[in-house]
Amino acid sequence: MVRKLKYHEQKLLRRLELVSWEAAAGSLAEVKALRRYRMGRREDYVHYKALARAVRTLVRRLRDLGPASAAFRSRCAVTLLEKLYGLGLVSGRQSLAVCESLSAAAFCRRRLPCLLVKLRMAQNLRHAVTFVEQGHVRVGPEVVTDPAVLIPRAVEDFITWVDASRLRQKVLDYNQERDDYDLAA
User: Fold this and answer.
1) Are residues 98 and 133 in the same domain?
2) 90 and 123, same structural domain?
3) H or E segment to which residue 160 belongs
4) Could you give the number of structural domains in the chain?
5) Using CA atoms, how far apart are residues 124 and 35, in angstroms rounded to an integer?
6) How confident is the model at residue 17 (pLDDT cuts 50, 70, 90)?
7) Following DSSP, what letter does each residue of 36-62 receive, concatenated?
8) CA distances from 68 to 60, 62, 65, 85, 133 (A)
9) How far is Cα of residue 180 from the mean position of the Cα atoms in its chain?
10) How far apart are CA 185 and CA 128, in angstroms?
């Protein structure tokens, strides 16, 4: 029903890479998640799905261990829960039932732009991704320009603006906290 593209049209389309629907045809839920979390690379989401699947299979294997290895099972369960809680993927350390429902969305929520929105440093994910890519955000002493960085709970408190950032200056002006030394600079 659609006409065949001419040579020059095919050449232009080769340069312009539109959404690769063959690659994204995995599922509609995947495309929705890519849009919802403003993820630039599909490979990141595929990697998160694989990690979540690995955690769920590990939890099932721990659950299926016999009663003879109860001490080993409890030790491994505590270690796994501590690790997942430290990464911020689960909300509590009570039981492995929480880990059985772990999804790729939990990994997406621990990305830096999502945490910027959660900490009210950005209005929405689109602005947060832009701030990160432009180099306005630092985590600890390091400036982060990759929005795919996963932030653990321990580092979440160290997310701040870069000292030379115009956004930081605007926030300080708005809160009337800008120092006289900063005004001279």
Assistant:
1) no
2) no
3) strand 159-161
4) 2
5) 13
6) low
7) HTT-S-HHHHHHHHHHHHHHHHHHHHH
8) 17, 12, 8, 27, 52
9) 37
10) 26
